[in-house]
Write a sequence for this structure.
């Protein structure tokens, strides 16, 4: 497709906003936003018009497309992951200027909302009026709903491109992976989700809410060809044993202590053997930064000790990418203003550095 359809162009202009603008603030991180806009657009004013013109380049853009979803409404411990898209982009542009990914922008996020299904008609009308100046607008208003709606159209128009999502708390991966998996099924491809995390995210609900950072995996299982095509790596913080999660949900898990005990190479062999037996065509990597040990990833809502080292993580990712195309991915739960190490900016910058290294690798693989 050489041009954007008018309907999709309008949806993008209405439901998204320029990169870095997904958090509605006046002065917070203003300098960082302006620095980002200067790097991407060459100026700090008239950004909306420049971004809308830039969207016309999407059809001829590289295969890897960045989408920020600056929402932490689906979190529940320490908030602040809504700043992940802005800060991680800045790190990527500084550390990896050779990246050629197309930046689609940010989902427009009303910070109090999660999914449209939780809203009554009055609230929906008010929010449509706030976002679109039309209380009868057909567009969604909550970040998870907007993301899924936009991506269904994205994959329909650009089946050969992939989305790299930047969150945000891990609930954001629900619409990212759901739209991806449904698109791959329509294309006749068998895709597996490789999920790096300290936590299983396999709750059915949390405090009565079924879509959140601790439950999103449960609600994409039926979109996989088989439930064990969700492969979880780095798990170590759970109130229940591995046997419960695998037995109840049918997923496959590789806990952090097992990886360290048996060695990374044996873990890689097990994952690759499973993928080969299942005739998997493509991979989606969903990465919660707390999969990394808290000595390297402290700027997150739920830092955990005993996690993977960055070198171990990269070893696993490189081995997977050598055998299978990575056609979708995300990086979640980087919370730049939240650091548990007591080191302040040092802990934040170390977390961003690790997150950027992993993200850059995934973006390069998606661009192939």
């Amino acid at each position: 497709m050489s041009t954007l359809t008018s309907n999709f162009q309008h949806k993008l202009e209405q439901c998204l906003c320029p990169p870095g603008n997904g958090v509605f603030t006046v002065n917070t991180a203003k300098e960082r936003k302006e620095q980002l806009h200067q790097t991407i657009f060459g100026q700090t004013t008239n950004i909306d018009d420049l971004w809308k013109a830039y969207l016309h380049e999407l059809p001829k853009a590289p295969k890897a497309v960045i989408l920020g979803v600056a929402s932490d409404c689906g979190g529940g411990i320490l908030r602040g992951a809504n700043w992940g898209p802005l800060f991680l982009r800045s790190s990527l542009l500084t550390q990896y200027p050779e990246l050629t990914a197309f930046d689609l922008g940010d989902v427009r996020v009303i910070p109090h909302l999660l999914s449209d299904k939780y809203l009554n008609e009055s609230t929906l009308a008010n929010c449509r009026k706030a976002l679109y100046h039309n209380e009868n607008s057909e567009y969604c208003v909550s970040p998870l709903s907007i993301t899924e709606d936009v991506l269904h159209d994205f994959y329909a128009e650009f089946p050969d491109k992939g989305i790299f999502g930047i969150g945000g708390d891990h609930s954001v991966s629900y619409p990212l992976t759901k739209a991806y998996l449904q698109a791959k099924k329509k294309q006749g491809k068998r895709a597996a989700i490789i999920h790096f995390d300290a936590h299983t995210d396999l709750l059915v609900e949390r405090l009565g809410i079924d879509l959140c950072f601790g439950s999103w995996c449960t609600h994409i299982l039926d979109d996989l060809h088989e439930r064990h095509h969700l492969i979880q790596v780095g798990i170590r913080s759970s109130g229940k044993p591995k046997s419960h999660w695998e037995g109840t949900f049918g997923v496959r898990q590789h806990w952090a202590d097992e990886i360290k005990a048996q060695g990374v190479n044996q873990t890689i062999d097990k994952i690759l053997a499973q993928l080969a037996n299942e005739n998997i065509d493509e991979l989606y990597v969903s990465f919660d930064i707390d999969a990394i040990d808290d000595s390297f990833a402290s700027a997150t809502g739920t830092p955990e000790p005993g996690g993977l080292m960055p070198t171990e993580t990269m070893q696993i990712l490189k081995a997977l990418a050598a055998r299978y195309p990575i056609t979708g991915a995300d990086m979640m739960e980087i919370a730049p203003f939240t650091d548990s190490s007591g080191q302040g900016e040092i802990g934040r910058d170390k977390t961003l550095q690790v997150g950027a290294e992993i993200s850059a690798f995934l973006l390069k693989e998606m661009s192939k």
The mean pLDDT is 95. Residues 100 and 251 are 34 Å apart (CA to CA). Strands lie at 16-17, 64-69, 102-107, 162-167, 191-196, 230-235, 252-255, 282-288, 326-332. Residues 345-366 form the longest helix (22 residues).
